[in-house]
Amino acid sequence: MPDTPIDPVPQQPVLVRSAFGDDFKWGVATAAYQIEGAHDAAGKGTSIWDVFSARKGKVKKQHNGCTACDFFNRYPDDLLLMQTMGIPNFRFSLSWSRLLPGGTGAVNHAGVSYYDRLIDHCLELGITPWMTLYHWDLPQALEERGGWANRDIVSWFGEYAALCARKFGDRVKHWMVLNEPMVFTGAGYFLGVHAPGRRGFGSFIPAVHHAAMCQAEGGRILRSILPEAEIGTTFSCSHIEPLRQQEKDILAARRVDALLNRLFLEPALGLGYPLEELKFMRRIEKHMKPGDEEALKYNFDFIGIQNYTREVVKYAFWTPFMQANLIPAKKRGVPHTLMNWEVYPEGMYHLLHKYNQYSGIPKLIITENGAAFADEVRHGKVHDPKRIDFLDRYLQQVLRAKQEGVKVHGYFVWSFVDNFEWAEGYDPRFGLVHVDFDTQKRTIKSSGYWYQHFLKS
Ligand code: BGC
User: Is the pTM of the predicted complex or chain greater than 0.70?
Assistant: First the structure.
């Protein structure tokens, strides 16, 4: 049994939940590879993250997600803990290689049964499941056939999306197609710092186009099988500012904005890729076939905003293609988290207004926001006032935007539990609940109690 929260409120919430309205969706978010563990249990196939993290020097301290939070085995207790904390919505992703070990073809029934049990358990506890189809853990078998750089992924992904919709759509009403395509193509296929560790334009450019195609195709497939479902997709977004109010910095900031904030969203809205600002991306047109422009469009019911920081941009002659550099928070001497990401709550406010202006977006939901610190257990407790301050101040900005008419309808904290933070391993802790990775003991942090009290307010 998990610990039951009994602590007094460590810090009285300034905000009250009711100010956001009764139908505002509150939740926590996670992803399969970051929490499930059981990497080769019950018929699961290998994913690109299993392979990448086993390679020397790819993940800090040679950490991997083989066990992670062992959520695969511990989900009943973890969901009970979530219920005790009063969290009404749970965003998690499906592991493609747990359901289709070879990426396509034979279905792993043990994988289907795991997600069946997980969903049923959520519903029994009064927790609404929000499901992401793809949060970065591509089956290795598909990577060996070219992965996201192979156009066939549009049909592989379609097969997977249809399977998920048919198996779970009777109980799951909220869906997200992709998690942050800019990050998994950029970090995985251009910079090589995430799985599968490929570098350069050769893979990146087609990967971008195919991910954008899958984004829309995934939406269409879910809709065709689940006409009543609420279907969205998620984007990494940062508020971007030029270092100085000088033309070169302003233009550099615009390029970064086009790359980080607009590249995947605008084709879905029917606006095409922002190639005016991103001249080097024009080679993407070579990968486009007749009809693709139309196929990139999909009317999502909501757009998931995932925001952690702001970026300050400086013109940089020597930086290839972008001619822009991001100035790290530490260098700017501003408050930052363990990821070296600036704590800048007003950035959330500006972003919400920015996305609100797109007429094609019916609804915004903040599907991730949170902060990493090096939290420790002391005398059985985890005191994390910086995270409380972070969440409180970001939420104030969400409320401010909402009160000004921005169509924001939900907020999910990243993350429920400390978990595998990709190439950074286990050191950056994002959870409302602390995990001791040696014993798998869970300890609700002060921020977890804070969220609990906020949700009850
Ligand atoms: C991702 C998460 C990740 C978080 C913090 C988001 O980009 O969706 O998987 O853990 O940011 O880095």
Answer: yes
